[in-house]
Amino acid sequence: MSSSPSQTSGSGDASKATPSGQAVNADDKPRLTEEEKKQNHIASEQKRRQAIREGFDRLTELVPGLEGQGRSEGLVLKRTVDYMRDQIVQRQALIERIEQAGGSVDPKYKK
């Protein structure tokens, strides 16, 4: 027995029942005022900037030589890239030493 789309739940309409049983369309929600939209945008932007600041602060904790310095984001990024490149070179050197000593390294760690 198949049911028609109007008999199934989730038929795609945007109406919901209120406690009184009255149907209310989602479109009937009050719209945000321009000021509320502006305030939401400002809050979102502040949150985004704070997340970026926290990310840079975390990098200054992780990358040697950046501790306690004034934070120039360009400098933090440059030194982070330099540090990561150095780490990759050191890793490759360790892999080569292991293999020269007769050991083996899983290929997934050679990338």
Automatic annotation (TrEMBL):
<keyword id="KW-0539">Nucleus</keyword>
<keyword id="KW-0805">Transcription regulation</keyword>
<feature type="domain" description="BHLH">
    <location>
        <begin position="36"/>
        <end position="87"/>
    </location>
</feature>
<feature type="compositionally biased region" description="Low complexity">
    <location>
        <begin position="1"/>
        <end position="15"/>
    </location>
</feature>
<feature type="region of interest" description="Disordered">
    <location>
        <begin position="1"/>
        <end position="50"/>
    </location>
</feature>
<dbReference type="InterPro" id="IPR036638">
    <property type="entry name" value="HLH_DNA-bd_sf"/>
</dbReference>
<dbReference type="InterPro" id="IPR011598">
    <property type="entry name" value="bHLH_dom"/>
</dbReference>
<keyword id="KW-0238">DNA-binding</keyword>
<dbReference type="GO" id="GO:0005634">
    <property type="term" value="C:nucleus"/>
</dbReference>
<feature type="compositionally biased region" description="Basic and acidic residues">
    <location>
        <begin position="26"/>
        <end position="50"/>
    </location>
</feature>
<dbReference type="GO" id="GO:0046983">
    <property type="term" value="F:protein dimerization activity"/>
</dbReference>
<dbReference type="GO" id="GO:0000978">
    <property type="term" value="F:RNA polymerase II cis-regulatory region sequence-specific DNA binding"/>
</dbReference>
<dbReference type="Pfam" id="PF00010">
    <property type="entry name" value="HLH"/>
</dbReference>
<keyword id="KW-0804">Transcription</keyword>
<dbReference type="InterPro" id="IPR052207">
    <property type="entry name" value="Max-like/E-box_TFs"/>
</dbReference>
<protein>
    <recommendedName>
        <fullName>BHLH domain-containing protein</fullName>
    </recommendedName>
</protein>
<dbReference type="GO" id="GO:0000981">
    <property type="term" value="F:DNA-binding transcription factor activity, RNA polymerase II-specific"/>
</dbReference>
